[in-house]
Amino acid sequence: MTYRILVFSEEEENFVMEVIASPSTTFHELHTLIMEACEYTETGNHQFLICNEAWKVKEKIHLHSPQSIGLDEDLFMMNEVRLEEFLEEEGQHIAYIYETSSRKKLLLELVENIFGKKTDCVHISRKKGTAPVQFDYTEEMPIPPTTTPNTTETDDDDTVETDDGDLFSADELDAEGFEVNEM
Length: 183
What we know:
Elements: E1 2-8, E2 16-21, H1 27-37, E3 47-51, E4 57-62, E5 76-77, E6 93-99, E7 104-114, E8 123-128
Parallel strand pairs: 4-5
Antiparallel strand pairs: 1-2, 1-7, 2-8, 3-4, 3-6, 6-7
């Protein structure tokens, strides 16, 4: 089986990518592919947020181990977790935090489970438009957080969600409206 994943943005409506991945692909491999394709740089603890159909965050998958984690929260690391552990049904939603200080995100949707087809690597099959910028240079460029024995870093994951726990309203998103052309 092979996954076909659509990557899009609320910020840049003309941007869309289609990713083809094996179920055994790690989230770290997907992270690396997105970072390279969008020409982004590492800025901190990038995350994948596994969401329900209403974009409410169910699980978080971290690039680096956070300093604090809730007692009832499991710790999932990108280099240890494979897509097949979280992706099951077509239409499943994921958010990818690509700029950690301002919580900029890309949206991902599993659009198809392709049975009878296998791929050895994760790759981009189609891309349209320009990826959203990672940093807004009209403001001061964010400085990635550093930790020393005398400082603490707070995990501000809840800023992604709305007051009612939703990442955003499901009616704000329409993956069907995106057109993807061959590369």
